[in-house]
Amino acid sequence: MGCRGAFSEVRLAERKDKPGEMYAVKMIDKKALKGKEDSLENEIKVLRRVTGGELFDRIVEKGSYTEKDASDLIRQVLEAVNYMHEQGVVHRDLKPENLLYYSPDEDSKIMISDFGLSKMEDSGIMATACGTPGYV
């Protein structure tokens, strides 16, 4: 079981030397990434700093998710999307799995991840259908 992106798949793995200690492992298809190595380096830098986990995990840990919690989250996502669009960046794969908390803190900001399908576009016109099939 794992999550598949355009260039990678994330799987749950157990350390051989410490049974029971689980990690998320991101496996990257180097052939598919050819020519986009810079984006991989940027993603690695960001992921090393992000320690708060995924949105779904946070909701499950919390036990309840209020309308205020949801509105705070959506406000942050919309502000981030607005900023990206002002810069001419279109993400093209926004989904809950790509929303990560910056830190474990209760009031941690949300971060958008996985820009593997993103595109620079300022004309406002895009014709290519893309994204995660289940969300498209």
Automatic annotation (TrEMBL):
SMART domains: S_TKc (SM00220). One of its GO terms (molecular function) is protein kinase activity. Pfam families: Pkinase (PF00069). InterPro entries: Kinase-like_dom_sf, Prot_kinase_dom, Ser/Thr_kinase_AS. PANTHER family: SERINE/THREONINE-PROTEIN KINASE. This is Protein kinase domain-containing protein. It comes from Rhodnius prolixus. The lineage of its organism: Eukaryota, Metazoa, Ecdysozoa, Arthropoda, Hexapoda.
